[in-house]
């Protein structure tokens, strides 16, 4: 995706430079996917139907691209969005609690 030649005075070796390039490419891909997701939920009028009903603030288009300083809040928001989307499709879904393990929740989504 990106062809970058990094020149660093930090003494980075080729492996470190390649690792950073891969990280930049992953962030770029995540950003593109999040942008598509964000525009799709805008079509569902999520601010009026989800945010107002749940009393939650709308998130930014890059909210799920980067790890949040409050990971619990970010994961809770993710779970809430997924639950809302499943309910919008009339797909049966069991409710999760704050005591459920993140891996258990993630596996039940998939």
| DSSP, total strands | 0
Helix content: 55-70%
The share of residues in extended strands comes to under 5%
Low-confidence stretches: none
Q: What radius of gyration results from the CA coordinates? A: 18 Å
Secondary structure category: mainly alpha
Largest sheet: none
Descriptive overview:
It is a single chain. With 110 residues, this protein is mostly helical. The chain contains four helices and no strands. It has helices spanning 14-43, 46-54, 71-88, 102-109. The longest helix is centred in the N-terminal third of the chain and has 30 residues, at 14-43. It is globular. The protein starts with 13 loop residues before the first helix and ends with a helix.
Question: Any key phrases for this structure?
Answer:
110 residues; mainly alpha; 59% helix; globular
Short description:
With 110 residues, this protein is mainly α.
